[in-house]
Amino acid sequence: MKKKTNNLTSFTDHLDEQYGKTGTTTRDKYEEGFEAFKLGVMLQELRKEQGLTQEQLAEKCGTTKTYISRIENDASDIRLSTLMRIVREGLGGHLKLTVDI
Fold first, then answer.
1. Cα dist from 74 to 9, 10, 11, 98, whole Å
2. Which one of 2, 52, 60, 73 is at 20 to 30 Å from 26 when CA atoms are compared?
3. Among 87, 94, 96, which residue's Cα sits nearest to residue 60?
């Protein structure tokens, strides 16, 4: 009986194939976009956990519902000062950042 081969590809291999190896321009763009996506999802989840609508969150931190929506759907252009205000005034939290080198 012939043994079946496993045709599964690891996620890292998939990323290497689709976007190039870590450190290439294309891969770096992908990684930045993914981090922005994660930030948007994280803010959306925190907002929903607190039972806030986008409009309510916007009112609490002095921005607009449209801006909150844009952040949750594509956080790539958010200013750090705005992010800090949303987390602090809108969600009652503290922002902590890390840098990997």
1. 28, 27, 23, 21
2. 73
3. 87
Q: Would you say how long the chain is, in residues?
A: 101
**What are the tens digits of pLDDT across the range 86-97?**
999 999 999 998
Domain made up of 11-90: CATH architecture: Orthogonal Bundle (1.10)
Nearest-5° angle of CA 76, CA 84, CA 80?
40
Q: What is the DSSP letter of 75?
A: G
Global confidence as pTM: 0.77
Please, what's the b/e burial string for 3-14 (b: 16 or more CB within 10 A of its CB; e: otherwise)?
eeeeeeeeeeee
The residues spanned by each domain of the chain are 11-90
- Amino acid at position 63, single letter: T
Neighbours of 28 (CB within 10 A): 13
Q: What is the pLDDT of residues 34-87, one digit of tens each?
A: 988 999 999 999 999 999 999 999 999 999 999 999 999 987 678 899 999 999
